[in-house]
Design a protein that fits this description.
Strand content: under 5%
Number of strands: 0
Number of helices: 11
Structural class: mainly alpha
Shape: elongated
Order of helices and strands: HHHHHHHHHHH
Distance between the termini: 86 Å
Largest sheet: none
Helix content: over 70%
Length: 223
C-alpha cells in the first residue's frame, strides 16, 4: 500500500471508530485527524468535507456487501428458490467481522433519519427492490404489501444478529454461537423461509372463516 492509500485508509478507519464510539455529529474533523495522525489538509484532499467522509465510511462497508449479494443472487439462476434468495441476502453481511462494524451500525440504526438518508436511499433501496422482485417471483401468491412486511422482518432479524450477535453465547448459555457464519446463515434461512412461505393474509382470512363455518355447523348438528 502506498503512502497516499495508507493515509486514506487511516482516515477511514479512524472516522469509523470515532463515529461508532461518539456519534457522527459529535465527532469533529479535528478528532479524526488527531486519531489518524494526519493533518486537516489530508482529509480535505481525500474527502473534501466531513459529509463526503461520512458517505465514504458507510460505502466502504456496504458496497462490497451489496456487490456480493448480487453476485450470489445472479449465480442462483433465473428462478432461484426462496432459500437461495435468502442465502444471497444474508451471507455477505453475516460473514464480515461484526465487531468492527457494530458500533457504527448501532449509531446509524439509533437515528432513523440518518439511516434513511445515508444508508437506505443511497445504498439499499435498489438492492431491496431487486431482492423483493426475486422473492415475488418465487412466491407469486404474496402481494407487494405482504412482501414488504416480510422483507422488513427479514432485515430486522439480520440486524438483530449483527448488533447483538456477540452476546448470544452469554444469553443462551453457550447454545447459540455466531463463530460459524455458514451455520448462522443456515439457521436464519430456515427460519425466514418458513415465514415467507406462511399463508398470505387473504389465505389466512379464508382459513379462519372456514374454521368458523365448520364450528357453526358442528353446533347446529349438535343442537
Amino acid at each position: 500500500m502506498n503512502d497516499t492509500a495508507d493515509t486514506k485508509t487511516r482516515i477511514l478507519d479512524s472516522a469509523e471508530k470515532l463515529f461508532g464510539l461518539n456519534g457522527i455529529e459529535e465527532t469533529s474533523l479535528r478528532d479524526i485527524t488527531a486519531h489518524a495522525q494526519v493533518n486537516l489538509a489530508a482529509v480535505n484532499y481525500h474527502f473534501q468535507s466531513k459529509d463526503s467522509l461520512v458517505d465514504s465510511v458507510i460505502a466502504r462497508r456496504i458496497e462490497p456487501v451489496n456487490r456480493r449479494r448480487l453476485e450470489m443472487l445472479d449465480a442462483a439462476g433465473p428462478e432461484p428458490t426462496v432459500e437461495q434468495i435468502l442465502t444471497a441476502f444474508l451471507t455477505p453481511p453475516l460473514e464480515i467481522r461484526l465487531e468492527s462494524v457494530v458500533p457504527l451500525l448501532g449509531r446509524i440504526l439509533s437515528n432513523p433519519n440518518l439511516f434513511l438518508d445515508r444508508v437506505y436511499k443511497r445504498h439499499f433501496a435498489l438492492i431491496s427492490e431487486r431482492f423483493r422482485a426475486a422473492l415475488g417471483k418465487a412466491l407469486p401468491d404474496l402481494s407487494r404489501r405482504e412482501l414488504l412486511w416480510r422483507q422488513m422482518f427479514m432485515v430486522g432479524s439480520m440486524t438483530h444478529v449483527m448488533v447483538l450477535g456477540q452476546i448470544l453465547p452469554a444469553v443462551t448459555d453457550g447454545v447459540c454461537d455466531i463463530s460459524d457464519p455458514a451455520e448462522l446463515v443456515g439457521h436464519a434461512v430456515r427460519f425466514l423461509a418458513a415465514g415467507f412461505r406462511a399463508p398470505s393474509e387473504a389465505a389466512a382470512r379464508r382459513a379462519t372463516a372456514g374454521q368458523k363455518d365448520a364450528g357453526q355447523k358442528e353446533l347446529q348438528c349438535a343442537g
